[in-house]
Amino acid sequence: MPFSPQKRAGTISGILFVAIFAAAATMIADISFIKNLGISPLVVGIVLGIFYANTLHNKFPSAWETGITFSGKKILRFAIVFYGFRITFQQIAEVGLQGFMVSLLVLSSTLIIGIWLGTKVFKMDRDTSILTASGASVCGAAAVLATEPVLKSEEHKTAVAVSMVVLFGTISMFLYPVLYAAIIEPSSGFLHMSPSTFGMYVGGTIHEVAQVVAVPASIPGAGPEMANTAVIVKMTRVIMIAPMLIVLGFILSYLSKSSGGKGAKVKLVIPWFAVYFVGMAGINSLIHNYTLTAPLDLALVITGVIDNINIIDTFLLTMAMTALGMGTRFAKFKGLGLAPIYTAGSMFIWLVVGGFVITQWVVATF
Fold it and tell me: What is the C-alpha to C-alpha distance for residues 22 and 188, in angstroms, rounded to an integer?
């Protein structure tokens, strides 16, 4: 137990050590150049963690490892639950059936294609394939973090998946504005998209929330309609973390039972933190509803509290990501080769091309 009398001091020291790294990551991510690239504190945190793991790891007490592990496991689950305070069901209702269908079709198709490519075509292990696919299909690093406890995978596999999200998410930030300016906006017919439809396309296909925000902001004259639609569709994808993880838990249990024979006892993996995540989104929705009719002063206080919860939650997620990075040694990457890049690159092409087709079809049909 991490907080047993023998391990308590080391655990607390390890947690504080991770918190210091997370604070540094938060400050680095706040530098204007880094912020403009859409790089979140979570990504900076895992980079710092990996740097520590491969340079300074042996120079610090091994007793701190329990605190680092606690940050990467328990604090992670807690932070994912409170991530629900970023979402309201009202936001999802605003984009209606079209936004929901784009999110659902892009997420499910990307997840299936990514897992199939990773395991069958590029011969990666199952966990790395699922983690990489979840990051591309749902919401980047946060989705990878949320999927890791369900798989109980090794830290270096999470690091691989996050690095792929960073690479291709960053490429998309530069590619999408160019596509819109050169092809989509001036075209007619199937290639043309209105600002609202392009926002749906951006929110439905780009990896990170920060990257989704950055794309409309970098398009001259994009207007609030594109930006708002993009963010709302993206948050619709985010809330789909919960059902995706629950379905994944059932599938993993079924596969384990199938491979273990008739007499095998298989524990069903239900990620309860994902259920609680939806519950927090529901509470946030009720709070949002109340603030619409509450006195202005009270509404401002409530909004401020929610904002502070989200700031603290981002810091906790950064701690979790940093801790995962601290468990990542480069030696563990041997044997993976270029398979993660091939898998993530193929999914990126699918998101750009397939996501475009899905968005146009949904808008024309629903």
Answer: 48
| Token pair of 30 as six digits | 């706040």
- pLDDT, tens digit (0-9, with 9 covering 90-100), for 110-122: 999 999 999 999 9
Q: Find the helix or strand (DSSP H, E) in which 164 lies.
A: helix 155-179
Describe the chain by its helix, strand, coil percentages, rounded to 5. Answer: 85, 0, 15
Q: Decide: helix, strand or coil at residue 2.
A: coil
Token pair for 191: 């290639």
Per-residue confidence band for 36, with pLDDT thresholds at 50, 70 and 90? confident
pLDDT > 70? residue 268: no
Radius of gyration in angstroms for the set of CA atoms belonging to the chain, rounded to a whole number: 21
Taking the C-alpha atoms of residue 82 and residue 312, their distance in angstroms, rounded to an integer, is 9
Gap between the Cα atoms of 111 and 99, Å rounded: 18
The sign of the torsion formed by the CA atoms of 132, 135, 136, 137 equals positive
Please give the C-alpha separations between residue 135 and each of 157, 250, 254, 283, 366, in angstroms, as whole numbers.
12, 19, 23, 26, 27
**Which tens digits make up the pLDDT trace of 293-324?**
999 999 999 999 999 999 999 999 999 889 98
Is residue 221 left, alpha or beta, with left meaning phi > 0 and alpha meaning psi from -120 to 50? left
Whole-model pTM: value is 0.81
- Measure Cα distances from 355 to 137, 176, 180, 184, 202 in Å: 11, 12, 14, 14, 9
CA distances from 13 to 19, 34, 132, 238 (A): 10, 29, 32, 33
b/e burial code for range 179-202 (CB count within 10 A of at least 16 → b) = bbeeebbeeeeeeebebbbbbbbb
DSSP three-state, residue 222 = coil
Asked if residue 265 has pLDDT above 70, the reply is no
Question: pLDDT digit string (tens) for 95-112?
Answer: 789 999 999 999 999 999
Ranking 60-64, 89-93, 187-191, 267-271 by mean pLDDT, the lowest is 267-271
Decide if 79 contacts 320 (C-beta within 8 A): yes
Question: Phi/psi at 218 (nearest 5 deg)?
Answer: -95, 5
Q: Where are the alpha helices (DSSP H) in 218-354?
A: 223-239, 241-260, 272-293, 296-326, 339-349
Token pair for residue 16? Answer: 């504080």
